[in-house]
Amino acid sequence: MPVPSAIRAAFLIALALPFLTIGAGPKKASADPLVVDLSNHLVAITTGFTGTNVLLFGAVEEEGDVVVTVRGPDQDMVVRKKERKVGIWVNSESARYKNVPAYYASASNRPMDIIASPEVLLDYRIGLQNQRFIGESKLSDDDQKVYREALVRNMQGAGLFGERPAKISFLSNQLFRTDIHFPANTPTGTYTINVYLIRDGRVASVKTTPLVVSKTGISAEVYEFAHRYSALYGIIAVIIAVVAGWVASVVFRKR
Amino acid sequence: MQIYLPIAEISVNIFLILGLGGGVGFLSGLFGVGGGFLITPLLIFYGIPPAVSVATAANQIVASSVSGVFAHWKRGNVDLKMGLVLLAGGIVGSTVGVWVFAWLRSLGQIDLVISLCYVIFLGIIGGMMLFEATRAIFRTRRRGGQIRRSKKHQHSFIHGLPLKMRFYRSGLYISALLPLAVGFFVGMLTALMGVGGGFVMVPAMIYLLGMPTGVVIGTSLFQIIFVTANVTFLQSVQTQTVDVALAILLLIGGVIGAQFGAQFGSRLKAEHLRALLGLLVLSVCLKLLFDLVITPSDLYSVMPGDL
């Protein structure tokens, strides 16, 4: 049963409070300027998985802006362009990209362009526009741009790239929280979550925390089995079908 | 209720898939067809990746053919020798087909080829069925029914082919190359389209090989079991696109639906059934053709590159 996220947030923030009181104490030099944690470090894709939210919460020692980026595992992607041939739309030219995150989302408490200059955001690779995909094709620069846009647009359409930065809300001057949404088609792998504390347009502190998305339960075992023992899987699939067909013919013959 | 399919890697509505299996099962019981040519496009329309749809449909057809073949076997309606020759062609054809499938997939053209195969075959078969059935309906109305003589003993180039074989059950003495070629072709279709191929094989057996109608269905079902089993196995090994969970859901719906379909079908006239089936096949064909011809909302598509 999903616990209402508000209650969960309150509970987790209560847990985080001791850190804050230490931070607010006189020994400022030794305190951590940024404390972050997740409600869950494992997103389990079970048989009933339809997407989930992970709560990211934390505290800053002194006031500042907070930016969060979530990056899925890198993968190769192929972008294909359709062309009309003899009246039918056919895949024609294609471009291959390396280092494309399988998932990307960001969040900030204020619009990013107010928080930091484009140069700073580029230096830290914050935001979709600052992700570098390495293209493997001989396309012209103009085409390269179109293909890159198509890649981003398609990933956004699939819900795997965030359309725009999500909102980070401050509950006080120091406490913040945000929900990271993972859709039903979330790819598996190890995700990297970076939290940046930005003051006066400069990154004052960065915290990195991993998040693992993995299949668990029956569906994970079936997938594992299908890929590891594919021949045996094929034989079992055939046996299931033969038995099912035989049972059906026996059951319904008697009627 | 949603269920996450382990191989398709998407979550689907369990009742919708059961209903889809049931609906196609109903139609296959009603019309006496395998239904693979309907289940694959419908799965694709629903959003299951085409590769998974084709491979999983092959797995499901194994079951529906097994359940159908018993009755024919008992009545002696299976020409085993003919079935084995067709099968030999089918095994080679489907093995080549799976290989072609993987090759087209790496080129990014598999979706197009699947759609095109469907448009062509559904268009031809549906058009012919509708034409033939409407003619039959008119003929019975006018009561001017004249039965055409069978052309079994007409001689053509076919009878000049070498490697002649005697098929006692079918009462034929023809070149083995012919059923081998038919089996090969249908095996290719099974791998590429996820169909049993009965809708191509049955007319080919009657008109091309000249087999008596009585043994055609049983023999084709016999061949289809092994060819679809071969495709299931090879797709599992080569592309890992057979989704057992999806196949089981389709099976359950299909088996139940087929029983209702068979009962309902006995109340309709044969030519009306064929006309309806022809219309159905043509509408699936038109929908696929429409999707190929209209300008897509996005001209660019994205796929993981390791496929």
TrEMBL record, chain B:
Keywords from the named record: Cell membrane, Membrane, Transmembrane, Transmembrane helix
Mode of membrane association: Multi-pass membrane protein
InterPro entries listed in its UniProt record: TM_pro_TauE-like (IPR002781), TSUP/Inactive_protease-like (IPR051598)
TM segment ranges: 12-45, 51-71, 83-104, 110-133, 172-193, 205-229, 241-261, 273-294
Keyword check for Membrane: yes
Annotated compartments: Cell membrane; Membrane
Gene Ontology cellular component list: plasma membrane
Record keyword Transmembrane helix present: yes
Highest taxon above the source species: Bacteria
Pfam family, one: TauE
Primary location: membrane
UniProt similarity note: Belongs to the 4-toluene sulfonate uptake permease (TSUP) (TC 2.A.102) family.
Protein name per the record: Probable membrane transporter protein
Provenance organism: Thalassospira tepidiphila MCCC 1A03514
